[in-house]
Amino acid sequence: MELKEAIARWKELNLNRVILTFNCGGDNMGDMDWELYDNTDNTVIDGDLVDYFDTEVFKHVDFYVNSDGHYMGEAGTVTVELEGEEDDFSYSKDAMSEYEEQIDSDLIVELTDAELAFVKEYVSNINGTQDEDVNFNYSKDFIMTDEMVELEDSIGEKIYNTASEFTPEDIDGDISDWYNYETSDTVEIKDNTISLIITNSYYTQTGSEW
How far apart, in Å, are the Cα atoms of 170 and each of 104, 178, 189, 203? Predict the structure, then answer.
């Protein structure tokens, strides 16, 4: 279908506007849903016009499909209208861009005297993520006794539970399920606690009109 044919078909159907709802990201164009509205604001079905705009919209509108680990993609609408002189169509995009941000927070875990003694004597670093067992890196070689295994399991459970229940403060966005945590090169012990840094991921959106 050529431009003149599309305009003629537009007038024949008494269309007022055509709206594309879309989302894209991850280096791909996602869902695209077209709706045609006539002058009485009723929806109209016309596959030929949808096919026409499905191609033409990419000639007139920039869609930002690439993702880089920070920018995730965008979602919104494109409104197509017949311009006043009725010799061409106008394309107006209104979209929200999504970004993935990260925030670091202190994670404080209270331990028993026996657990703290085990960490101080044998552990150099502790780390993990939302879907892994807690990892212990040791500061020296030693023979692990059954009692030590129980202490390590207890410490790991406390750290995992504290991390999974933690929610960072002062974020402007939607929290992700992803997070990781780790101590410094040497576990910081203060009073009856150890300190870790937890990194949470969250999503923010900014609006833009093209």
Answer: 12, 17, 27, 13
Alpha-carbon distance 140 to 149, whole Å? 16
Which among 23, 197, 171 has a CA at the least distance from the CA of 95? 23
| pLDDT above 70 as % of the chain | 98
pLDDT of residue 186: 84
In this structure, is residue 27 part of a structural domain?
yes
CA 208 to each of CA 96, 97, 169, 173, 199: distance values in angstroms, whole numbers, following the listed order = 6, 7, 27, 17, 29
**What's at 193, amino acid-wise?**
T
Q: Contact at 8 Å (CB) between 39 and 16? A: yes
Under DSSP, the state recorded for 2 is -
User: Does 134 fall in a domain?
Assistant: yes
Q: Token pair of 28, please?
A: 């791909």
* Least-confidence region, from 138-142, 199-203, 206-210: 206-210
Which domain does 154 fall in, by range? 101-203
Which residue has tokens 């670093």? Answer: 125
In 11-88, where do the E strands start and end? 15-25, 28-38, 43-44, 71-82
> Residue 78 pLDDT more than 80?
yes
List CB contacts of 57: < 8 A, sequence separation 6 or more: 20, 78, 80, 91
Do 83 and 105 sit in the same domain of this protein?
no
Q: How many CB atoms lie within 10 A of CB 7?
A: 16
